[in-house]
Amino acid sequence: MTRDSFRDSSRALVAHLQRLADPERRDRAALARLRAALRPGRELEALREVLPYVHELMPRAEDAALLTAGLFSLHPHHRSGTTLATALRRLAAGQEGDSVEQRFQALLSASRHELSTHLRYAVGLVAGQPSPSPIDYTDLHAAIYWWDHPEGRSRRRWARDFWAPRGSGAAETDPARPDSSTTSSL
How many other β-carbons are positioned within 10 Å of the β-carbon of residue 153? Predict the structure, then answer.
C-alpha cells in the first residue's frame, strides 16, 4: 500500500460519507447502519457502506473505515485541516477546568482495542456543543489506521495540535500528516 493510495481511498470514503449525510438526499438507513457499527458485534452491518472505499481488504483497513464512518454518523460535519485534537483544543479553551484535556490524554494513551470507546466520547464532546467544530475525517481515518505505529506519528500530530503554542505552525507543516496542504472541504 502506498501513502497515495491510502490518501485517495480515505478521501473517497469521506466524500461518500458526506453524500450520505447531504441534507438534500440524506440516506437515513445508511447512517443508522454506520451508527450501529459503533456497537460491539454490529460492525459487519456497515461493511457494505465502506468496503468500496477501503484501500486494502484487510481487517485493519476495514476496521479503520468502519470506525471513521461510525464516528462521522454521530457528527457529520467535515472540514479538512481541523483535526479532532484541534476541535478538542477549541472546546477546552472555552471551558473551565481540565476535563477535556484529561479526556484527550486518555485518548492519546488508548490502545487500539480501547480506541473506539475514547473516540466515540471525544467526537460526542465536540458534537454536543452549541456550535460544534467540524472534524477532518480524512485525518481521523489516517490516525485510526496508523494508531499503533511504533513511532506514534498520529498521537504526536494530535498532541501538537492540542498543546503546541498557537501560531507555531506545527500542525500545518507536519510531513507525516496525510495531506497537510489541504485546507478546504472535500
Answer: 17
Q: Which amino acid is at 113?
A: H
Amino acid at 124: G
**Secondary structure of residue 135 in the 3-state scheme:** strand
Which residues does residue 135 pair with via DSSP β-bridges, in sequence order? 78
Give residue for cell 511504533.
150
List the domains of the chain with CATH numbers.
3-163 (1.10.520.40)
* Three-class secondary structure of residue 78 per DSSP: strand
Between CA 14 and CA 103 the distance in angstroms is 25
- Retrieve residue 86's grid coordinates: 484541534
Instruction: Please report, in tens digits, the pLDDT of each residue of the chain (186 residues total).
Output: 567 788 899 999 999 999 999 999 999 999 999 999 999 888 888 998 999 999 888 999 999 999 999 999 999 999 999 999 999 999 999 888 899 999 999 999 999 999 999 999 999 999 999 999 999 999 999 999 999 999 999 999 999 999 998 765 554 444 344 444 333 333
